[in-house]
Design brief:
The structure is a homotetramer. By secondary structure, chain A is α+β, with helices and mostly antiparallel strands. Chain A has helices at 23-38, 43-48, 117-120, 122-133; strands at residues 4-7, 51-52, 55-62, 71-81, 86-94, 97-106, 109-110, 113-114. Chain A contains 4 helices and 8 strands.
């Protein structure tokens, strides 16, 4: 898996001169979408198939500030994969140094009912399992 | 009509220490939605009725910078109201001084076809006309 | 203490039709700034005095979706107040129902060094303590 | 000059299912920063040298909607270059079709006073002139 790169935009900074902390939640979404594309089951396909996958929880631990033009490298690992829940862990680095770590929790709804990941998305499930042993 | 008030949020500032210029486009949208509510035909009702009203054009002339906690007072005037097009002019002030002026152009689609404003929204049309002579 | 009200803006929604999850982090910031104003020690004054107060961590648990025009009522409680660390807990409700809960962790730097809250901001410290027993 | 590419992010869409119109102003900024980098005089260097370059005006004409995962290709042309003012014109395309055109007006301040572009930034000025005859 290739890490996702996000170059900090001017409009993502705030008057403290650093990337506003809310943007890391967005950067994690960008990285997650790219990660799913790499796993071969894009978020657009999921939506086209009528799946709704809300973010159940999200958190960030801010270690170092970043700013305009910094290139944030985001690495994603599956932290937990159960029947109906997926927990992803994010490590964000600039120049090799950790600037932020985060976590998101996801579930999947198919026609309004919780979907069992391994049954509804077997290939995605296998691909995610494979990243665990990589 | 009551002017719309927007207090600048911390996350709306950028590393120059001022409100990022893109946010005025959003503030104009907030003010426009409030203005339509005051005219008695809210944007949520319009959407519920299946009307799609894209912004065709938008522009801003930035006069003075604003920053965190500034209260921007937005005044809207109908600049042009034709059969299928609406042009709104915005004056944004802080403490009585103009900080930005703007314009947006709108049209309305009903079931994918352009809607004649006076026919499809007669009460909104009358209300907008009334603001012209106020 | 008065709860903070945030009416969801059109631009805060996403193509799923709901408030994008990243915006709750921003709404928590808005509420926190209002809360500090109510405690009599505004964030602008803190910045003017050269204090830098980074968000060390932030998290959200999303319970129900919200959308355009929903009015989110944010209640803040001090969860932990130590010498150099402040943890705030947020409860966000629409129409009395909880839509999201969150937490933020803060510390304070004065001239680049960690500030002891009770010493550097005695009145703010007392005001925060008072909310605990309220 | 290489056109700038922006892939539309999920959080840039709104409940209409399309890219929110305010984001094009941000995309134009991203493209402009990339364009200045290509011209050899990056915005970060300009800021480091104490230059302040506010956006004096910005406008967009929206032609077609775009949405999540669309790749917007932004082409920039110098529309006007006078002693103290720079006007840039933007053409944004998806799959070769124009989705939006825009314009921004800029001036430059050095130590609070308007800077004559050709004198203060001779190499940038020459590089911009060169794009005109390309």
């Amino acid at each position: 898996m290739k890490p996702y790169l996000h170059e900090v935009k001017y409009y993502e900074t705030d008057k403290m001169g650093v990337t506003h902390h809310s943007n890391y939640i967005r950067i994690m979404e960008e990285a997650r979408i790219d990660w799913m594309d790499q796993l071969g089951y894009g978020y657009d396909r999921m939506e086209a198939e009528g799946i709704v996958s809300p973010v159940v929880a999200a958190s960030c631990n801010y270690k170092k500030t970043t700013t305009f033009k910094d290139v944030i490298e985001v690495e994603i690992k599956v932290k937990q994969l159960s029947e109906v829940k997926l927990i992803l862990a994010y490590t964000m680095r600039v120049g090799g140094k950790i600037v932020c770590t985060g976590e998101t929790v996801h579930c999947f709804f198919d026609g309004g009912r919780p979907a069992v990941i391994a049954e509804r998305f077997p290939s995605l499930y296998e691909a995610m399992l494979a990243t665990l042993s990589a």
